[in-house]
Every structure is written in C-alpha cells, then in structure tokens.
Amino acid sequence: MTIPHNFDLQAELAKCKTAEDLTGKNGLVQRLIGGMLEQMLQKEMDEHLGYEKHSPEGHHSGNSRNGRTKKTLKSNYGEIELEVPRDRNSEFEPIAVKKRQRSISEFDNKIISMYAKGMTTRDIQSHIHELYGFEMSPAMISNITEKVIEVATDWQARPLQSVYPIVFFDAIHYKVKEGGKVVSKAAYTCLGIDNEGKKDILGLWIGESEGAKFWLKVCSELHNRGVKDILIACIDGLKALPDSIRAVFPDVKIQLCVIHMIRNSIKYIPIKHAKEFIVDLKAIYGAITVELAEQNLEKLRVKWDGSYPLAVKPWISHWDNIRTFFEFSAPIRRIIYTTNAVESLHRQFRKVTKNKAVFPTDEALFKMLFLAARDVSKKWTMPIREWKTVISHLALAYGERLGLAND
Known about the structure:
By secondary structure, the protein is an alpha/beta fold.
C-alpha cells in the first residue's frame, strides 16, 4: 500500500464523489493512512539497519531486509492492510505499528493532541514530515480533528452535579469570521469547584460579545443539565451578570473579583497618588471583619471621592457584591475573593490560540477551546488547597443546601 512517488492528492480527491469515497472502506483516507504507515515502517527499518534500501552499505553488514509480513489494523476509517518489513535476524521492533498492535486509532489521537496544544494544521504537517518523512495534507489533519466535535458536543451536554459550592464565571474574547466579516465573539466559561474540591469545567459557549442576556442563557443551560443550586458565584465586573445568575439560582451569594475592582480603580488614579490609594484600598479588603471594612470604605470615600470619584464610587455602589467574602473564614476568602482560578484557565486558552488571529467559524473556536480544556483538566486530579476545611465551614453555613450534592 506504499504511496507511489507520483501520487497526486488533488487528482485523487477529484475522484471522490461521496463521503464514502473519502472515508469509507478502501476510501482515499484509508489508503493514504496505510501508505503513510508503510513509509514510516520503512523509515524505521532504515534506522534499525543503519542503511537505506538497496544501499551498498548493507553488504556484509550482518543483517538485512527479509521480505514483508501482511498485517490488518483497525482504524477510525475501517480496516487497513499493511505490509510490515522484516529483517533477517528478527530483531526489528517497529514503533509506528508495534508487533502485536491491532489498532491505530491512537495515531489520530496524537494528531488531535498536537492540535490541542495550539499547533496549526501546517505545523502538524511539518512535524509529521520531519518525524516520518511523508506528507500529510492539512485537509486530512482537519478531517481527523473534526471528529472532536461529536465528543465535544456530548461533553457539553453531560449531566452535572445538583449543587456546586463555588462557580467562577468569566469570558475571553476572540475574532471570528461571520457573514463575510470579522467580528468579536465571547467564549463563555463556567469553572466549578465540586463537592470534592476538584475543579470542573462545566461548559464552554461561543456567543456575542459578553452580555447579561447570554449569561442568562448559560445559567439556564446549567440548570437544565442538573445544577439546582450554586452557593457562591465569583465574577468579574460585568454590571448585569449578578441579576442573570440570580434569575436562575436565586439563593446564590455573589462575590465580585476584588483584584478586578482594584485594577479598575487604579486606572483613574495619577501615579503620584497611586501608592497611597492602594494602601487605603488594602485597609478595606484586608480587614478582619466586615464592620472594619465598611469603616475603612467610608474613610476612603471622604478622602478620595472629591478628587477621583470614578475610582471610589464602584466600591460603594457594588459593595453588597464585594462584601460577601467577609462572611467566611480565611481559607474560603482566599478562594473566592478573586477570579484567578478561571483566569488561569484562560491563560492556557491564550497559549493554544495565539497562532490564530481569526477563527473561520464558531465551531472551529469551540473545538480548539474544548481540546485545550480537556488537556488542562487532565492535571486536576487533586482537590484544591485546604478543601477539607473549606467544605466543613461551608457545611456549617449552608447545611441542607450543600447536602443536595449527595443526591
């Protein structure tokens, strides 16, 4: 099944009239993968023997090629017939297709893994060529990664826990082609902490630029997938987001990200006053009790509101959604006073999407983010720090509501 030197991919594609011609039994993809695997095996044999086929270097070398063995492999595109090269001393141990291997579905997974780490189809094509010495078209790589959509769709619709103690809500923005134009889209992320203290990405949604209406849709979908209660929702500064969350989860406590609040205030403060202003802010969010925090907030208002009202007023107008973390012990405060947990996830998203200035479709963006999310979440095997203490304190505070997690 070795691919001939004069193989013309475009000509072969032109012969394909149906999807069956492309991916069905004896279809083009099946033949190409088989041919490429044979080339990989021939390359491995060259490395094993130390010389290329028909090279005079092989004369009297002590080992040589000794024909081929037929082998049938299962793949995502049906059964593939291979001819595996043998050596006279029976020492050849192939890597691309191991001796007792009967399936090569993992080959697709390797390509998907490279794609998940942010490699473009062209990067993957070049990487495979460098490793194995054969060409794999970007179209074929795209076809392999397209299979991810079905898996991602199932993941997005999976049932969820009935109660999540903490959920972080945030969005990250990308450029996507739509209707012949490039528009800004928001990728909405919900990162939950489950009752065992483990992080869980509850879903990813691609929609219009971040807005309360779409967040309401996200919350409704979470509810439809089984989430009946969220104890604490951690958010950034989107004005109407608390109302969107409470519309679906009326008993939720909202915690605005204190770090976002600080950043938004500082941009209105001249450099000469920034250090002093930050000290006064720290006296608020670093207070031991909410009473002391409110006392220090009043001092901030009296001192700075006349000069820099845009830096001060958000702390006053949003205080009900900032003060939530004062209701809890230090281990819980450290988790909820910032949205850093979901922002850390978004930093990983940026790493894998940095080579994509514009995505061709919403689906292409969703596919890449799902793969990145799947890659990152493999590392989340342990509960977050101090979780036993956290869950004990939450159980005292919420009692029966938290007990729903065991339904």
